[in-house]
Amino acid sequence: MSAYDVxxxxxxxxxxGVRAARIAAGYxxxxxxxxxxxxxxxxxxxxxxPKKLMVYAGRFADEFEDxxxxxxxxxxxxxxxxxxxxxxxxxxxxxxxxxxxNLMRAGVDVVPERAVIEDPHTIRLLGSDxxxxxxxxxxxxxxxxxxxxxxxxxxxxxxSNEVFELESLPARILVIGGGYIAVExxxxxxxxxxxxxxxxxxxxxxxxxxxxVRDALAEAYGQRMDLRLGRTLAQIDRHADGxxxxxxxxxxxxxxxxxxxxxxxxxxxxxxxxxxxIETDAAGAIPVDAYSQTRVPSIYAVGDVTNRANLTPVAIxxxxxxxxxxxxxxxxxxxHRLIPTAVFSxxxxxxxxxxxxxxxxxxxxxDVYKARFRPMKATLSGRExxxxxxxxxxxxxxxxxxxxxxGHDAGEVIQAVGIAVTMGxxxxxxxxxxxxxxxxxxxxxxxxxxxxxxHPVGSG
Length: 460
Fold this sequence. Notes:
Distance between the termini: 71 Å
CATH class of the largest domain: Alpha Beta
Radius of gyration: 24 Å
Number of domains: 3
Helix content: 25-40%
CATH superfamily of the largest domain: FAD/NAD(P)-binding domain
Strand content: 15-25%
Oligomer: single chain
Shape: globular
Structural class: alpha/beta
CATH architecture of the largest domain: 3-Layer(bba) Sandwich
Number of strands: 22
Mean pLDDT: 95
CATH topology of the largest domain: FAD/NAD(P)-binding domain
Number of helices: 13
C-alpha cells in the first residue's frame, strides 16, 4: 500500500498545471488536480484567447475601410458588442470543456475546490474539508492583476479580469499601463470605436522591447488614440456623466471606464506556503531551480507563479518538462533565454532573441539589418502604414541573435523565424533561403547590406 493518496497533486488548472497533469498521468502517475474557478486558467478563460478574439473583431474596421481601394463598396459597418461578447464567451466555454475532457481522458481526478498546503505532502480541499496526501505537489496557480498606483478612487477602475464582463462597449475608456495587456486592450477598444486614451508613466511603451519597435508602436498608436506618455494617474472621481481621471500634471480625462493594466502578482496568498517551508521572493514569486523544484524537494512550481517568463507557452513547456523529468525519466529543463513572442497590437509585433542594445552588450560588434517599407496591400488601400523588420547578427559567428518585426501578421511570421533562430541559424542561412514573393516576410531573407555595424558599448 502506498503512503500517499496520489502520486501528484496539482494546484491550479491553467495551461501549465493542465499540461503537467496530463503528461504525468500519461506516464502512469496517479494525479489529482484542484481548480477553484474554471479549468483553462487565465489564458483560456480571461486572457490571451478571448482577448485575441477581440483583437480580430477590432481589425475588421480597418478591413472594411481598406476594401474601397480594391473596388469594393461596403455599406457603413455597424458593430454590436453584445454579439461579440456572446460568441466569445461561448468559444471560451467550448475550450474549457475540451480541457476538462482531455483531463478526464488522461485519468486525472479533477476537483473544483480551493486547495491549500498543510505540509510538504498534505493538501486540504477547503470546500469538502478533505485531506489528501501526495508524494509530490505542483503549484501552478498563476498570477492576478493588481490596481496600481494606489491612488484615491482606484477602486472605481477595472482590471483585465473584469473587462471581459462589460455588458456594453464603453464610449470613452482610459487604459493605464505600458505592457502587453495595456497595449493590446487599448488597441482593441480604439479599433472597436471607443474614444481611447492610453496612459503610461514611462517615455516609451513595452519596456524590454527593441527601442525602434517601441518608437514605431508609439507613432502608430498616436494616430489611433490619445497616447499620453510620461504621465501618471493621481485620482479617480465619479461624476454624473462618468469617471473623471486626474493626472499628475493637473489635466483631467472624462471617461466611462478606467482599465488598469499596470502589473500582475503571483497568486500565493492563503496558499499555505509557510506551512511547507517555502518563502517567496521580493516579487511574491516562488523560487525554483532549472527543473521547477522549490527548496522543498517534494514541491514544484511552474508558470506565472514563479515569475520567470510570464507567457502561456512558457508555462505549458515548464509543465511538460516537469512531467518528463519526474515521471518520464527524461530530465528536461526550459531555456528561458530565447522565447519567441508577439504583442497583438495593431499593427502587430513579433520578436525573438535580443534587442539591439542587449546584443551589443553581449556580443560586442553586431551587424544591424533593417527594412522599412509600405506593405503591398497599403498601396491600393491608401493606408499610411509602414512595416519595420530588423535582423541582428553577431559579427564574430554570423549567427542571427535577434529578429524584430512590426507590422501585419508579425506574430505568425515570428513563430517560423523563431525555429531558425532557436536552431542557431546564421545570416548566411537566411541569405541562401529562397524568398517567397510577393510577401512582406521575404524581406527577412533578402537583406544583404547591414544598415549599420554597431560596436561594443563605449567603444566609440
